[in-house]
Design goal:
mainly beta, 7-stranded mixed beta sheet, 4-stranded antiparallel beta sheet
């Protein structure tokens, strides 16, 4: 499975961005998907996860209420809608596939990773 994330860019505080992650090589409809991020000088951290059918989601406390993860299995794509962005959201954002049905927050639960897309939030 290859994952390609895109949609990052430069946005002002309070703005919005929508990240997309397209999968190729096989269908991902039977697997959970997630987003992680890595800020400069920090370790990569969990952002959001979604079950195989989109019925259940999980979010880091730092983004709850501002970010929304969703998926379109017909397009083999997962999205991350980011609203009310803050400078501390600046990071490289990675999408990942968890080879199970349900959400997960641990990086070691994910088997496939995209290359990352940079989000920069200016103050």
């Amino acid at each position: 499975v290859q994952l390609q994330a895109f949609g990052g860019g430069l946005v002002q505080t309070g703005g919005s961005l929508r990240l997309s992650c397209a999968a190729s090589g096989r269908t991902v409809s039977g697997y959970a998907l997630g987003w992680f991020r890595q800020a400069p000088g920090k370790e990569r951290e969990f952002v959001a996860s979604i079950t195989w059918n989109g019925d259940t989601t999980s979010y880091a406390d730092s983004v709850k209420g501002r970010f929304t993860i969703s998926r379109e299995n017909a397009k083999n794509t997962v999205y991350l809608q980011m609203n009310s962005l803050k400078p501390e959201d600046t990071a490289v954002y990675y999408c990942a596939l968890r080879p199970f049905l349900w959400v997960g927050v641990g990086q070691n639960e994910y088997a496939y990773w995209g290359q990352g897309t940079l989000v920069t939030v200016s103050s």
